[in-house]
Amino acid sequence: MGLDLKLDISTSASSVPHPILKVRGAETSHREDQIAVEEPLEIRLAGMSLAVTMRTPGDDEELVAGLLFSEGAIASADDLDVVARYRGPEGERDSGNVINVLLRGDVTAARKLLRRNFIAASSCGVCGKSTIDAIGQSLPPVTSDLMAPASLFGRIARAMNEAQPIFGKTGGLHAAGLFDSEGRLVVLREDIGRHNAVDKVVGHMVLAHRMPLDRYTLMVSGRASFEIMQKALKARLPVVAAVSAPSSMAVQMALASDMTLVGFLREGGFNVYAGAHRIVSDAAESPDHSPRRV
């Protein structure tokens, strides 16, 4: 007998109401809460199943485009023929959880590449310095003249907090935000998975033909992992900022790729783990109004 999943979740819903018992000290009350939706998304290449990833529904086409880009299956939106929701046979319920992709290039080669990458990611993960060296051979360090004033990071942290509607309701989602050189929010995406949120942001820019991202800053709501830095490097992002801590491999990746990595970003300050040469004091603090390195 299979599990009887009780939650009634409509197609593409990002959150769902659920009754809870709220306990605060000796006081209890029955309330209705909003919880973040987690659903499987099946990705198909030319109708053949490639992988299933767990995500929060919404912006699925961007998620798939960003994933294909970060894994090297496409170089730009021009390599995509169709990214469309698979509706299923007539009469079947449309779950909204299948995306079919048609590529203009070699589908067989792309499928082999993606299967190899997905299997490696799900089995042993990355393998230390040899993995960084291998990535470095195919992806050179980031080249960018972007300079980030120290005050920019407080501004993007505030903008990030104010632009997370689903997190505000559920408290259960990660977010990734892309900011221009002036600190203006370009696109923000939320998801149950931090990597999915980054893929959605990158996928948005891929589909908009706005790559590379060498004049932008990426901010993530959780920790900075190796995988996030790898996706940022592929997109040529010079600056990555995280609310929480970076991992050791994330720092190694940033150092090897000449990327600026900021962690523990709060209203009152932040830590710089790599690439401090891109962070400057505000021009207004200098008598000649020229930016100075922090």
Which properties best describe this structure?
single chain, about 290 residues, alpha/beta, Ubiquitin-like (UB roll), Cytidine Deaminase, domain 2, 2 domains, six-stranded mixed β-sheet, four-stranded mixed β-sheet, 8 helices, about 30% helix, flat
Q: Could you outline the blueprint of secondary structure elements for this entry?
A:
Layout: E1 15-24, E2 27-36, E3 39-45, E4 48-55, H1 60-70, E5 80-85, E6 98-103, H2 107-123, H3 129-138, E7 148-149, H4 150-162, H5 165-170, E8 174-179, E9 185-191, H6 194-207, E10 217-220, H7 226-234, E11 239-242, H8 248-257, E12 260-266, E13 269-274, E14 279-281, E15 292-293
Parallel strand pairs: 3-6, 7-14, 10-11, 11-12
Antiparallel strand pairs: 1-2, 3-4, 5-6, 8-9, 8-10, 12-13, 14-15
Helix pairs in contact: 1-6, 6-7, 7-8
Question: Could you explain how this protein is built, in words?
Answer:
The chain is α/β, with parallel strands linked by helices. It folds into two domains: 39-128, Roll (Ubiquitin-like (UB roll)), CATH 3.10.20.10; 148-293, 3-Layer(aba) Sandwich (Cytidine Deaminase, domain 2). The chain is 31% helix and 30% strand. The chain is built from eight helices and 15 strands. The protein has helices at 60-70, 107-123, 129-138, 150-162, 165-170, 194-207, 226-234, 248-257, and strands spanning 15-24, 27-36, 39-45, 48-55, 80-85, 98-103, 148-149, 174-179, 185-191, 217-220, 239-242, 260-266, 269-274, 279-281, 292-293. The strands form four sheets. The protein has a six-stranded mixed sheet, with helices on both faces. It has a four-stranded mixed sheet with strand order 4-3-6-5, covered by helices on one side. The protein has a three-stranded mixed sheet with strand order 7-14-15. Helix 1 crosses helix 6, helix 6 (194-207) runs parallel beside helix 7 and helix 7 packs parallel to helix 8. It is flat. Residues 119-130 have low confidence and may be disordered.
